[in-house]
Write a structure and sequence with these properties.
CATH topology of the largest domain: Rossmann fold
Number of strands: 13
Structural class: alpha/beta
CATH class of the largest domain: Alpha Beta
Shape: globular
Order of helices and strands: HEEEHEEHEHHHHEHEHEEHHHEEE
Bound molecules: iron/sulfur cluster
Number of helices: 12
Helix content: 25-40%
Distance between the termini: 16 Å
Strand order of the largest sheet: 6-7-8-3-9-10-12-11-13
Number of domains: 2
CATH architecture of the largest domain: 3-Layer(aba) Sandwich
Strand content: 15-25%
Radius of gyration: 21 Å
CATH superfamily of the largest domain: P-loop containing nucleotide triphosphate hydrolases
Largest sheet: 9 strands, mixed
Length: 338
């Protein structure tokens, strides 16, 4: 299979997600009857290659974190397929999933709530090593010390508790814990959005250095386009549970094809203060995922919506090599699962 064909459908990628759907039932009444569904993620397809960062962007509540949780098997999927190194993992029993767990790790937005406050930093990082490897206490301590050094923490901080670290240091601790079992893909869910801007840059640069050094892949979930532009190789844009555009970073930022991506990018400040960009203000709020609009989900806010958009959902189309867009206004070959 040629590289182009492989890139058109993700075959052979480290992680391949096809038609992922996750609905949460809404229960009401004494008998907890299901009265509706939250359409958190609907028919989402993408892939991540070895050593690649795929940025997943969109407004809060668009389904990007649910997508990350599904990849990590922290939530069951309603339908669709998740393949890790060619093997379906979306329905694997816990015991069989354990073999893959060490390779799939996570860094979360709020390291304080994701780190056990009663454990010393050393034990937080040692825990996944103890879980997955048969090493002596001295070897574990040595490995933890080297991870501390690698993420920019000092060995004498190993005895501290999470509350004794600053926000940036806690996120470094979270990264050390994710690195401990030698993962191949890390789902980074808004890893810098709770940090000061200067600290954000340090953490992003650390993640990029680690990728270069260890060949890691990242699924990088964020709402901040500037951060996503800095770290990603490719970017997928989500709106109300669907991916609406996916392409390489340069193309997305220079030539967005979906009206929602155009609106998102119009709000990003340009580095040159003299350069002007026309701001596109979207009318209204994001509709509820309990009752998403028919047709194109973006039609209630799209500045160029047409009659057809209210009735017919747009197919994902390959508008240029590696560039997929779901919009009736764009020409291209329809793609089954990008
Ligand atoms: Fe706008 Fe229609 Fe394109 Fe949806 S399909 S983004 S509503 S033009």
């Amino acid at each position: 299979m040629t590289a182009t064909a492989r890139r058109a459908n993700g075959t052979g990628a480290l992680l391949n997600v096809e038609h992922l759907t996750k609905h949460y039932p809404i229960r009401k009444g004494v008998f907890s009857r299901v009265s509706g569904q939250v359409h958190a993620v609907d028919d989402v397809s993408f892939w991540v290659e070895e050593g690649e960062t795929l940025g997943l962007v969109g407004e809060s509540g668009c389904g990007k974190s649910t997508t990350g949780k599904a990849v990590l098997r922290l939530t069951d999927v309603t339908s669709g397929a998740i393949s890790w190194r060619g093997q379906r993992i979306d329905a694997l029993p816990a015991r069989e999933m354990r073999a893959h767990r060490r390779e799939l790790q996570a860094v979360f937005q709020d390291p304080y709530s994701s780190l056990n406050p009663r454990m010393r930093a050393e034990d937080i990082v040692a825990e996944p090593i103890r879980n997955f490897e048969d090493r002596s206490p001295a070897e574990i301590r040595e490995r933890v010390a080297s991870l501390f050094e690698r993420v920019g923490l000092r060995a004498d901080q190993m005895v501290k508790y999470p509350y004794e670290f600053s926000g940036g240091q806690r996120q470094r601790l979270g990264i050390a814990r994710a690195l401990a079992p030698n993962p191949r893909l890390i789902v980074c869910d808004e890893p810098v959005s709770a940090l000061d801007v200067s600290v954000q840059a340090q953490v992003i640069n650390l993640l990029m250095d680690l990728q270069d050094e260890l060949g890691l892949s990242y699924l990088f979930i964020a709402h901040d386009l500037a951060v996503v532009e800095h770290i990603s190789h490719r970017v997928a844009v989500m709106y109300l549970g669907k991916i609406v555009e996916i392409t390489d970073k340069r193309t997305l930022f220079a030539n967005p094809q979906h009206p929602y991506t155009e609106a998102l990018l119009s709000a990003v400040p340009l580095p040159d203060p003299k350069a002007a960009r026309k701001r596109i203000i979207l009318a209204g709020d994001v509709p509820s995922p309990v009752n998403p609009p028919a047709g194109c989900r973006f039609h209630t806010r799209c500045p160029v919506a047409q009659e057809r958009c209210r009735i017919e959902a747009p197919a994902m189309r390959l508008t240029a090599p590696g560039h997929l867009v779901a919009c009736h206004l764009r020409d291209g070959e329809p793609v089954e699962a990008p």
